[in-house]
Amino acid sequence: MIEIIGLTKQYGKFTALDHLDLHIGEGTVFGFVGQNGAGKSTTFSILATLLAPTSGTAFVNGYNILKDPKKVREQIGYMPDFFGVYDQLKAEEYLDFYGASYGISVNERKKLIPQLLELVNLTDKRDSYVDLLSRGMKQRLCLARSLIHDPEVLILDEPASGLDPRARIEMREILKELKAMGKTILISSHILPELAEMCDVIGIIDQGKLKAQGSVAEIQEKLQGAKSMMVKVNRNIERAFAFFEDNPDISEIERHEDGASIQFLFKGNAEAQQQLLKACIMQELDLVSFAEIETDLEDVFMEITNGGMES
Amino acid sequence: MKSWLMNPVLNKEFKLRFRSLKSFLGVLFYVLAIGIIVIGMIFVQQLSSMGGVNPEQSRELFMMLSVLQFALIIFITPGLTAGVISSERERQTLNILLTTSQSSSSIIIGKLVSSVAFLLLLIIASLPLYSIVFLYGGISPRELLTVFALNVFTVFVVGSLGVMFSTFIRKTIAAMVTTYGVMLFLVGGTGFLALIATSFTQMSQTGTPTTNILVYLLAMFNTPITLVNLFQPSIGEEIARMSGVSFPLWIAHLISYTFIFITAIVLSVRKLRPKMKAKK
Ligand SMILES: Nc1ncnc2c1ncn2[C@@H]1O[C@H](COP(=O)(O)OP(=O)(O)O)[C@@H](O)[C@H]1O
Ligand SMILES: [Mg+2]
């Protein structure tokens, strides 16, 4: 369980994180989405006790990162967005070193390492030098490493970035297994659809502030449950606007600058949509078109992170 | 104590270093080089004095060897240690290491010991060669042990400075330059200043004998003076006379360098991880 309270990080005068509040329940897979520079890595670094916040704090399984950093480190497995590996070290030895760093006994390590290599499909690479592995393999090995002390919380900073599609899928499969093991997982990405499928909750961060948070279903509802619709009228736009505005299933209604189009979110199934169109005609609105417009997660993300100012 | 021996960083670095053939070749060449120097010098001395090396010459040989090895230590140790933390930072392996539950002191000590271990191995491996000198007399076992102990001590003190600069300075190159700079000052700078201070003392010697405590303080921080003083106690006596301090110079050196060592280690341990407690 993670509780972030008023977390703020300033680099000089620049505010990278601005009073971030976040609650992530046990066993939740939380997707942290934001453009490059939004503050994801900063948040994760603070949770991993690698960076001191300017103000605010966070609790990991009840341990305060400011007061009990050592306990916090025991709770989490952290995978940075960029990391290096030691050369001249074999995959097995790599895991063995970090196992020892967590104070795991030699015997336990001997049992654990083959299991972890199996989990990330690297069993046949156990004698390979880590610096010679492909990027995707290094990424998986690093994931195995972050699991070595069986942490309850996993913090994965853009684990899929820089991977080819195949490696991405492999990574996703492993994460599904971890989720099934009941771990609390924080995972970041600058691409929303990448996370949507595997996360229970998504938080969208922009310029150090949390812009939206909710279950994937809630965010998808906002998009797909509520369709974006565009209506064009020939004349009498005021009357049409008033009509749509009165409908309880319609939200975020906007008039376009061309003076003839109205855009809104409509919550309802095909049946309801048909009724709406029927009602428009009965009311003798001067419609020339009535259409759904394509939206996907990416659009919502862009809309939220741009504050609806551009595009 | 047990946990130090089980130090994960130390274990890993040992594994890496002593796995390669290069390390063993290194030891071999070092011992060979010292051996050739020793045998060469003995040979030259035998030629010049006709018939055996006398104890005085043997003693001279021993001193030369000690100074040589000492210079080597001071020259090599910064290079071995000034990159231990900064290079992990540069290669982006430091973050991961810091998120493990290994304590900061364990990481720092492990890094220090593992980085100087090879040098210590060289010193130990060259010990038998000293005993060749030993055969001709002129030095006592106690002197030999003292020089050996001073060597090891110096390795750790210089090493702790290297580790400290490596922790504080982000770039390995900068950390190395700084460490070499500080060593240059401790080896040459303090000696040079001590000389200047000495000449001032001597100049004012026309009238009443004056003393200058600065001479003592500078000599105390100077490793070569301490080393040479081991063979030539007259130097210590001279310094005592000029400074008016009769406290044994080598003890003062030991104390001051132990202080440097502890300070460097404590500062490194503190600096390694960010202070999480917000100010105020
Ligand atoms: N050490 C630093 N010094 C100054 N600015 C930094 C530093 N680290 C990050 N930043 C800035 O903080 C912001 C957030 O960075 P980051 O958390 O890495 O974003 P993200 O991971 O979401 O891409 C960026 O604008 C970045 O330039
Ligand atoms: Mg990032």
UniProtKB/TrEMBL annotation, chain A:
InterPro entries: AAA+_ATPase (IPR003593), ABC_transporter-like_ATP-bd (IPR003439), DrrA1/2-like_C (IPR025302), P-loop_NTPase (IPR027417)
Keyword terms: ATP-binding, Nucleotide-binding, Transport
PROSITE patterns reported in the protein's UniProt record: ABC_TRANSPORTER_2 (PS50893)
Species, as recorded: Peribacillus asahii
One Pfam entry name: DrrA1-3_C
Coiled coil: none
Keyword ATP-binding set for record: yes
Domain ABC transporter stretches: 2-232
GO molecular function annotations of the record: ATP binding; ATP hydrolysis activity
Protein name (Swiss-Prot/TrEMBL): ABC transporter ATP-binding protein
Family note: Belongs to the ABC transporter superfamily.
Classification of source organism: Bacteria, Bacillati, Bacillota, Bacilli, Bacillales
UniProtKB/TrEMBL annotation, chain B:
Keywords: Membrane, Transmembrane, Transmembrane helix
GO cellular component: plasma membrane
Ranges annotated as spanning the membrane: 21-44, 64-86, 93-110, 116-137, 144-168, 180-201, 213-235, 247-269
Molecular function per GO: ABC-type transporter activity
The keyword Membrane appears for this protein: yes
Lineage: superkingdom: Bacteria
Keyword Transmembrane on entry: yes
Identification of the protein by name: ABC transporter permease
Organism: Peribacillus asahii
